[in-house]
Amino acid sequence: MAEQTSGDPLFQSHDPIFNRKELLHVGHVPDEDRIVGRDDEIQSVAAEVGAITRGDPPNNVMIYGKTGTGKSLISRHVATRAQNAARSNEIDCAVLYVDCSEANTETRATRQLALRLKEQTEYQQNIPLRGVGTMEYYQHIWRILEDCFDAVIVILDEIDKLDNSNILMQLSRAREAQKTDTYIGVIGISNKVQYRETLDERIDSSFGHRELFFHPYDASQLREIMRNREDAFQPDVLEDGTIELCAALAAKKHGDARKAIEILKEAGELARRTGSETVSEAHIQQAQEVAEINRIEELTSGATVHAKLALYALASRIITGSRETYKTREIYERYVGICELVANDPITENGLYRQLKEQAFLGVIESEKTGGGRSQGSYLLHRLVTDPKHIVKAVRRDSSLEELPTYDQLRDTTPSTTNRDLELDSFS
Ligand SMILES: Nc1ncnc2c1ncn2[C@@H]1O[C@H](COP(=O)(O)OP(=O)(O)OP(=O)(O)O)[C@@H](O)[C@H]1O
Ligand SMILES: [Mg+2]
């Protein structure tokens, strides 16, 4: 064993590639001077919650934007700065962060808030982990806030994952309802536009809030973000042009900083695994491929069976057809045939359309309106943002869908005639 360990480059005392690898970890919160290209966003968030630092009531704010645009990072960053600024004005300000993709019910979210508050204070009362309802957790929250804090910033990240929005109302009405005098500012974060559309129906006017939109990063911002973490690598390990290539690839896809950083890290891992002394453009290209498969798997693993079948239907049309884009109707026809293959009852065409829309927002597909005027002849064309091969692979990972034809099988069934776009026999 000892021999193996010393022979494994992974366990060398000196890492030939990475110097401070933690800078590239997903959960890493960079220092202020490593945050790039979000000055306006930082200012905007600060403008909404900043009143707290002067002892005034803050605004609630909802932040929307695609994945990897710095929403979580900037929110935490501004909240922490506000807390420090408040402290220097002798205002006791708490910052509470809840990841609603984990704490996805009101009970879980309020329990987490109560426990976090207790951690930060001398609060003596026991807060039960189970067996009590939301109301009891609220009681603890109000009591701790009332006793210990002048203000609190509550960050509800991935707020669309919460099963209901009552917590927003409770937090925004707390003062009015005389539960506590503490000023409460909520920062809600979501990468779902659909959430925004339904938010007004979910909440009443008590949750008055501003909206901010974070845009994807462009290549030069991504370059800057990565340059600022270059010291994650040993000196001279990154070959010239690698960061530029990585930024260009990530910008072309989605302007997602997380992906850009992940590709850089994966490229480093690849270099190390293959015993290379430097990270080259080829490593970046290869890492991008791996990252793309991971991304698709991540995105589709949480999707419903019908969303997966819809994606598979589109992928299979692209593989067997001669076009890159297909109408909802065309995808639906293929989808119905595929449902038969896996003995699944198809949903309606409109249902499928909604699934496609969701996937478009996630960034797996792109949908574009084409054709005639508003009333007539206009239709949506959908395309895959990724290689159809990845989709087929990811969808077939679902154990209930592994019977579906593989990429090679689909490709081999492609008629070599000019009628490549005709339905496959087995599908319709
Ligand atoms: N402006 C920036 N400067 C430096 N690093 C950044 C910047 N924006 C994002 N990052 C890094 O990119 C990663 C993703 O950012 P973040 O988690 O804030 O994205 P997000 O918008 O919350 O995405 P999601 O919707 O998927 O949660 C983080 O690791 C973060 O450190
Ligand atoms: Mg986030």
Automatic annotation (TrEMBL):
Role summary: Involved in regulation of DNA replication.
Similarity field: Belongs to the CDC6/cdc18 family.
SMART domains hit by this protein: AAA, Cdc6_C
Lineage of producing organism: Archaea, Methanobacteriati, Methanobacteriota, Stenosarchaea group, Halobacteria
Domain Cdc6 C-terminal: 311-395
Domain AAA+ ATPase span(s) in chain numbering: 57-218
Record field: transmembrane: none
Organism name: Haloarchaeobius amylolyticus
Name this protein carries in UniProt: ORC1-type DNA replication protein
